[in-house]
Specification:
28% helix, 3 domains, 363 residues, 6-stranded antiparallel sheet, Chemotaxis protein chec, 4-stranded antiparallel sheet, alpha+beta, Surface presentation of antigens (SPOA)
Length: 363
């Protein structure tokens, strides 16, 4: 017998014996008459060799064996979902964000007690991977949940602007800023308190088209630790210039992943143009807060005048004549504004004044 060719007795065709290569020798399972036969080995055939390669179920059984012990969960994906915003939707979103930065500037000014201004300079769309490449990795990053939206918004600012806010919050002048690239836990707590009030204006800006509320706010100091979306997911990035007092502007950014905006896309297309026509909730809230501000009041006589020489010559015991007549009401004033007329009176042992005219103010 040749080493390369094995002659197998069988049916003869045209009086010749068929020669088959070793590779074509039938194996056990293909022919019942060859059950238990082996070539070059006395061992029993394997389970895979006992399967018919022409069996249409063979591939399914092999896949089942490979995947045995692992659970695969199929996720639904809607190919009709948009991957970017249309131009009109982007414009509507810009108007909403402008309605956010105006009250946010006022809130920041009230917290720092210096004039602050936030202004949107650019609104672009880019994947999250590109965002990580364009912004510096280290910074003060506030991650805010906007409920009931499925994703989170991100407000990014540099370390320098964060340290400036901390210094002003503690009563400093914002000029002596240390040169370092990390914030302490105390500084992060101060920034968190300020950003909670600033970012609360974001849900108010969304209210005309979609009812939202601000949830938990967390902070990170590196964009690499921010896990809010996949690397190839599209994001809307609003570049915001932050100017504190008369100091140089700081570059900040508000990042809105597309999954965050997807529930309100239809409203951006249909109702976004009317956002500016609707009264902002912030205006009503500001009016309510103004009603709660404490003012210093004074009760004064009608003014009189003296020459500068007479004022210099005043000594203890001198009498200054007033132009105010006896029985004439006094003025109730706040700063330079006259509010109303009052009469002096007494309540128990304390002096008081009785309002005798309607309240009015000078504009």
């Amino acid at each position: 017998m040749n080493a390369d060719v094995l002659k197998v007795s069988g049916e003869e065709q045209d009086g010749q014996e068929a020669e088959q290569p070793i590779d074509a020798v039938p194996v056990a399972g293909d022919d019942p008459n060859l059950a238990g036969a082996s070539v070059g080995s006395d061992s029993a055939p394997s389970a895979e060799s006992a399967e018919d390669p022409t069996d249409p179920e063979l591939g399914r059984r092999k896949s089942a064996r490979k995947g045995q012990g692992r659970t695969r969960i199929a996720k639904k994906f809607d190919f009709r979902q948009p991957k970017t915003l249309e131009r009109n939707q982007l414009r509507s979103l810009q108007m909403i964000l402008e309605a956010f930065v105006r009250p946010a500037s006022s809130v920041l000014s009230a917290n720092l007690r210096v004039p602050c201004r936030m202004e949107i300079t650019e609104l672009t769309q880019m994947p999250w991977e590109t965002v990580l490449g364009e912004l510096e990795d280290s910074g003060c990053i506030s991650i805010v949940s906007v409920l009931p939206l499925p994703s989170k918004a991100i407000f990014y600012q540099g370390i320098k602007s964060a340290l400036e806010i901390v210094d002003l919050r503690f009563g400093g002048g914002g000029d002596d800023i240390p040169d370092r690239q990390i914030l302490t836990d105390i500084e992060l707590g101060v920034i968190l308190g300020v950003m909670q009030e600033v970012l609360a204006q974001l849900s108010i800006a969304f209210t005309p088209i979609y009812e939202t509320r601000i949830g938990q706010i967390s902070q990170e100091q590196s964009l690499q630790f921010v896990q809010v979306t996949s690397m190839n997911e599209m994001c809307v990035v609003a570049r915001i210039d932050l100017k504190i007092d008369e100091r140089p502007e700081h570059q900040t950014a508000l990042i809105l992943p597309l999954p965050l905006l997807r529930p309100m896309l239809e409203y951006l297309g249909s109702k976004g143009a009317a956002v500016l026509e609707q009264p902002l909730v912030f205006t009503d809230q500001l009016a309510e807060r103004l009603q709660e501000v404490n003012l210093e009041l004074r009760v004064v006589f009608s003014p009189t005048s003296l020459a500068s020489g007479q004022i210099i010559d005043l000594r203890p015991g001198d009498v200054v004549r007033l132009t105010h007549r006896r029985g004439e009401p006094l003025d109730l004033v706040s700063g330079p504004v006259k509010i109303t007329k009052v009469q002096p009176t007494q309540v128990g042992r304390r002096l008081a004044c009785l309002v005798v005219e309607g309240v009015h103010s000078e504009r």
